Amino acid sequence: MASLIEVSPALLLLENVLFMAAALVYLAATIGYIIYVRGQREWGTFSAMVLKIAFIIHTAFIAVRGYNVERLPFVGHYEFGNLFIWGTALVYIWTEWRLKEKFYAVGAFITPLMMLYFSYLTVIPSVIPAIVVSRVHRPLPPVLQSNWLSVHVATSVFGYAGFTLAFAAAMIWLIKHYVPALGVLGRMFPTHEALDEYIYRSAGFGFLFHTAMIISGAIWADISWGRYWGWDPKEMWSLITWFVFAVYLHARFTRGWTGKRAIALIALGWVAMLFTWVGVAWLLPGIHAFG
Amino acid sequence: MRLIDKFNGELSEGQSESPLRQTLRFFSSMQLGIFLLLLLAGISAYATLQEMEQAIDYIYSSWWYLSILSFTSLNLLLCTVQRIRPMLRLAYRPSKTSSSADIMSMPVHREVLTKGHPSPLDTAAQAFKSVGLSVSVEDASFGRVVFGERGRLGYFGSFVTHLSLLVILLGALYGVVTGYEVTNGGWIDSSFAVREGDFAVNITDIRMVQEKNPVMRPRVYTDVTVRRGEEVIAQDTVSINYPVRFGGNTIYHSTFLLFPVFKLTDVETGEAGSSRFMEGDRIYLDAQRTIHIEITKFYTNFSMRPDGTPYNLDYRTDRPVVGGLLWQGRENKGNVLLPLNKAQVFATPGGDVEVLLTGYDLATVFSVSKNLGRPFLFAGSVLLLLGLYMSFFITPERYYAVRGEKEQSLLIGGRGYRSKLFIASTLQRIEADIKRREEAK
Q: What pLDDT shows up at residue B6?
């Protein structure tokens, strides 16, 4: 069954151009941040500015996509993936604004992760034919026509963004820990202590929104399907991700886990999050298979 | 408070821990909590690799999975109880005095040189206020101390979070114990009884409304009247995302089905009869049941691909056709297509039989349930979000200022519950404010 919404060629072109432009400018920001951590301090502010430009272009893309699909562009891997990258950029830009240049180094790790997410929407489906990330403009099926959709997706975007930020900072922590002679890199990276708090705060932020996502999903499932919890693989993997980050937050707060063990939990949590988003869809499909 | 005392009471010298206290300590320990959460995560991950129904039956509903969940709940309960007294002490009985040595040992502290103002501590108090701290000046044996704090609510974050999880678990348990869930349905003018709820549901009308784009599954509206005895207790329309609720019971739209209606006529005698069928059903054409049509698919808007494969164009009902297989005994005699209002005659040992698709009936399938735990689940969810907000977005901070060891110096330091970054940044702002005020003088 073909399931297209009629989109004018001009708007379709605009949508695709904005998508490509956003991806390219994000890539430019990635390169800029990498140059920054290699010791070129002046590239920090410049890269932050480029990232903001990429974010604005990406916002425009999401707006045009929404106009073209005649609804909030929150459904399917392509739309959710874009929203996730956009949310990650927004949360990172916010932390940069709060903490100023002290944490520019995180930019050199968060932007490559965003490029990895972009690759899932572009390159990976062309390499692995089993993965299909459809860009088709589809209307919403009745089951998804609910205000809870926006709450559920928005909270999941910010939850995932917080976890991604925590993982990016955790990678810096690991490099600092395992590479003793970092030279110039060492000077650009925040201290272990500062990174640890950054990781904790990002994970806490992600955890709050991830919890809100699970709760809003449960309320919506109760309204749509007549039950809060259906033991669906997507629900279960969201819960597994929640368990892992709950363990990290408890261990960090009450037992003072700040070292390698804490980083291992963050990495495990990020992998669980990624599996919830991508892995479940292709390996364990259930009733969440909308996209 | 006795249980709390069991945890927190000090042991006198030489006194050994009682077995009860040891048990309580074990079940309330964080190590156990972490182990149980990781265990639940691991088992759940394994369970998702199984068929969903199997995982529900053999893992999620198993005694051992429920036992782990129960132990986790017990751990949560004891952790929550254990935390009450230290939390109250921490929040409401802060040490408001700190000597210069204490401040020097704080994770973030600074020494600010003042310009010999007669009361630099007053300047510090004003600076504390300017960053939004609630300020008091305390007299200690070593001199006056300016104390400022904010974010006291943050101390209660983890307590509220743990409590909310208990409320959610309690709500879920109460819902399971007192509630029920059944699946039932029917077509227009049919009824079904829900014995668990002591009422009957009568379907008065079913309407299918196509989406703007008919390739999307249509929305089905079902008018229902709910009766208890002769009394009508609810009357409303059910559709996807819009259930009907009454007295703690809820009727949800689960799905809809289309049942083709066939008229079978004995060509010789003219004897005829009509029946509804569904996909997978068999239409027996003779009394001996030697010949039958197995209904494989009901195409509401039939079309055919160039290779001869039938398919549904979309969800419209413009061209209804039933696809099936004709069987004689165990022998498949080939495919049959039965379009609307086009009779087909089949030869059977008992004579010719005319099969005519006369139309179709729309039926709705409902999930009917009662969940009295819903208010607890809702309250617990709100509490959970509030608790997490208090934990991660309200940072308890305490600051102290005393006269420094050096002439004309002021020693300021801060201590946070979970944050050093924010303490350092606030202390920087306090220092800047003190300098600005000194310069202004």
A: 47
Partner residue facing B241 (CB), from A197, A223, A253: A223
Q: Are A234 and A216 in contact (CB under 8 A)?
A: no
Amino acid at B424: A
How many other C-beta atoms can be found within 10 angstroms of the C-beta atom of residue B268?
10
Nearest to A253 by CA among B3, B72, B23, B159: B159
**pLDDT under 70: residue ranges of chain A:** 1-4, 285-291
Q: Is B71 on the interface with A (CB under 8 A)?
A: no
SS3 content of chain A, % helix, strand, coil (to 5): 80, 0, 20
Q: How far is A192 from chain B (nearest CA, A)?
A: 12
Q: B130 and B271: one domain?
A: no
Which ranges in B213-297 belong to alpha helices (H)? none
Q: Looking at the structure, tell me whether residues B128 and B54 fall in a common domain.
A: no
Does residue B262 sit in the same domain as residue B350?
Answer: yes
Radius of gyration, CA atoms only, chain B: 37
Beta-carbon separation of B34 and A251 below 8 A = yes
pTM recorded for the entire structure: 0.87
Q: Which run of H or E residues covers position B336?
A: strand B331-339
Q: Does residue B138 sit at the A interface (CB-CB below 8 Å)? A: no
Q: Is the pLDDT of residue B266 over 90?
A: yes
**Are B10 and B56 found together in one domain?**
yes
Please give the Cα distance from B345 to B351 (Å, whole number).
10
B245 CB within 8 Å of a chain A CB: no
Which of B65, B89, B113 is the last residue in one of the domains? B89
Residue B54 falls within a domain, yes or no?
yes
- Domain boundaries defined on chain A: 9-133+141-283
Give the type of residue at A286. G
Please indicate, yes or no, whether residues B275 and B348 belong to a single structural domain of this protein: yes
Cα distances (angstroms) measured from residue B382 to each of A162, A246, B350? 21, 18, 69
3 state SS of B260? strand
- Cβ atoms within 10 A of the Cβ of A72, count? 16
Give the pLDDT of residue B116.
Answer: 62
Minimum distance, in Å, between the CA of residue B333 and any CA atom of chain A: 30
Q: What residue numbers bound the domain in which B418 lies?
A: 94-151+395-440
Minimum CA–CA partner of A276 in chain B:
B45
How far is it, in rounded angstroms, from Cα B72 to Cα B169?
11
Cα torsion through A267, A271, A274, A280, rounded to 10: -160
For residue B265, the distance in angstroms to the closest alpha carbon of chain A comes to 36
Q: Torsion over CA of A41, A46, A52 and A55, rounded to 10 degrees? A: -90
Kindly report the average pLDDT of chain B as a whole number: 89
B162 belongs to a structural domain? no
Q: How far is CA A28 from the centre of its chain?
A: 19
Q: Which strand (E) or helix (H) includes residue B310? A: strand B310-312
Residues 6+ apart with CB under 8 A from A55: A86, A89, A90, A93
Interface size, chain A vs chain B, as Cβ–Cβ contacts under 8 Å? 136
